[in-house]
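We both want to read discrete structure tokens more fluently, so let's practise on a single case. Would you write everything just below, so we can both look at the same thing?
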Amino acid sequence: MDLIRLSIQRPIAVMAAVLMLILFGVVALYSIPIQLTPDIRKPVISVETVWPSAAPAEVEREIIVKQEEVLKGIEGLEEIRSESQDGRGRINLEFAIGTNMDKALLLASNRLDRVNGYPEEADEPSIQTASAEDNPIAWFVIIRKPGNNEEIHRFGDFAEEVIQDRIERVAGVARVNLYGAARKEMTIFVEPDRMARYGLTVTDVVDKLRAANSSVSAGDVDEGKRRYVVRTEGEFQRLEDVSGVILRSDRDAATGRFARVTVGDIATVAWDTSKPTERIRFNGQPAMAFNAVREGGANVIEVMQGIREAVKELNEYALPSQALELRQVYDETIYINSSI
């Protein structure tokens, strides 16, 4: 009764309280992230390093152990977990709730720069603000249009450089995982009989190629007020660069002439595509697939809207030139909207 009497006696105060509740409700509606299930895990930073064809024990010894040594002292870090697989290694850094993840990401990147002595074949480590256990909010397939008879996995480089890059630039997308793609690579088909004729082994060829495919800094030269940086560029760019690598050089004592054996004399160098690690089919036809993982705390509805706009843009402008099409096969926001 006292509450009712107080409300009648002070209608302006009651009206102001109701308006404030409505205002706070509207603000919360547009500021609180919308998602299918709440975030119950602590914020995570994932560090992944790819070393093609390496065994898990090698990945752990040459990469993971070195990275763990420099990452274990980051401020706010509560748990560090690592996983080594064939050709790749992953470290998950779990932080306390409320940690400034922008600062933690910068610290992790700076500490990784201290690691040296990576294997020559290993790629640079990639850092993401989502872990491998995060559920994707959307799945898409890449299929061929009628009249396109090229094998779908041969569009792997295009999918990575155009499609994956565009989706990852959508605000709120932490990672895009691409499956069923093959990458363009330079392949050397060695002829064993030719190698035997010149007394060469596969190890000899690999060592010569590794030594030739490198860029080395040679210091700098001061000339008056100017300083010139000297650097030898030797990385392979064309097939001819590989074919011309000298494997063996002998001098004839009688004539003084030199005889040289190059890679082109014992092998065929050509562009090819790597073997895809997955085979995907959609409605009976070969396809590639990718998913999108959102950043922690991002609004799923807004992220999905940005992804739809990016997919529409790709289907209208980039994909027709390759006779490809993007189709969405899973959308988490369908269940969210039906629940709301």
Remarks:
- The first strand starts at residue 44 and ends at 50.
